[in-house]
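Q: Could you predict the 3D structure of Putative proline/betaine transporter?
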Amino acid sequence: MAQVQPTMAPVEVSKKKANRALLASMIGSSIEWFDFFLYGSLASLVFNKLFFPSSDPTVGLLLSYLSFGLSFFIRPLGGIIFSHIGDKIGRKKTLVLTLSLMGGATFLIGLLPDYNAIGIWAPILLITLRLCQGLGIGGEWGGSVLLAVEYSTKKNRGFFGSIPQLGVPVGMVLGTIAISLISNLPEEQFLAWGWRIPFILSAVLILIGLWIRSGIDETPAFQEAKESGNIAKIPLVETFRHHWKSVLIAAGAKFVETGPYYIFATFVIAYATNYLGYKVSTVLNAVAIANVVTIIMIPAMGKLSDKVGRKPLYIAGTIGTILFAFPYFYLLSLKSAFWLTIATIIAIGIIWAPIEAVMGTMFSEIFSTNVRYTGISVGNQLGAAVFGGTAPLVALALLNTFNDSWIPVALYIVLAGVISLISLAAIREKRFEEL
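A: Sure. Here are the predicted structure tokens for Putative proline/betaine transporter:
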């Protein structure tokens, strides 16, 4: 009976604490993704000119995208480091660390001298800080998801798990708005100092996020595991010893969530402006509108998953991505701002939203508490490394290899969807089971 009391106490106060944890997971996640997307959005507008100068604009853009993609390969390491802390010490402390690392790196990027000022050290320092961002975001996602999911009940777990997933579209909207505002500056001023403003001002958001996260309690699930002694000695070893199949399944299922999104939301900025002649503001506005739609759709899909399950929604979104890959690029080729916006809304706001909404909850349900942070982080970040950060680089390389044809890029999106469908076949629906 002595072990029953600790598990009952969190339930009595769970509503108030759960709402506070839900707010902390969403706001902190949104701030981190805002910082992360700033780099991705400016890679094709600023960094290729100021930090990776080249006589060939395509080479400069490729180098810029390469620096963008490198952070995705460091994300699994961030997932390993911070998930170890999260599974050994707790979710809350880990999330404070990840937010601090991301915030510090982003602020310093805004202060970096360019290539003309310090030569080769400019791209070296930029890449170093980008890698620090990758480490931070690698540990952030798993912690923010678990902060929400482990405070939920069986009846609302899908909805709770969808809330931290809002961080991606909210961060993208904030980043897009910030860049849209500064892009109205004359080009000389924009390249000289305007692009630095959102990086520097993000320090204010980081401080707000740290204040909110410092006021939450540890999750009930982790508290119970700690009190019962169910803490893995070496979480990574335990994960690959007993859950290696789940890690691979999560990584494969991640492909359709990450690769296509970075094509629809990041690569499209360079493709639509440099290859199709769209104005930068037109593309940014389309991405922003689509992400606003996504912000509405994600919690709605999270609620729906509590009724119909995570797997059916994820499969529906995956099939939708496969079917829409070719129509998406065709609509862009019409060179109409209206159809560009419609295509982006369908791709991100309608098709991608159910995938994003249920991913965190679905991944959490296939790992036990003592290795859950490590399992979902490593699986998620492996998938992001293989098909996420490389997506803009691969898409650009395909365009140049096949004479600016978008068909290979569409096939690349289809490939991501097919691999994810194979992975989803191995996942068992667990919405009726206790976490």
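Q: Anything worth pointing out?
A: The first helix runs from residue 4 to 12.
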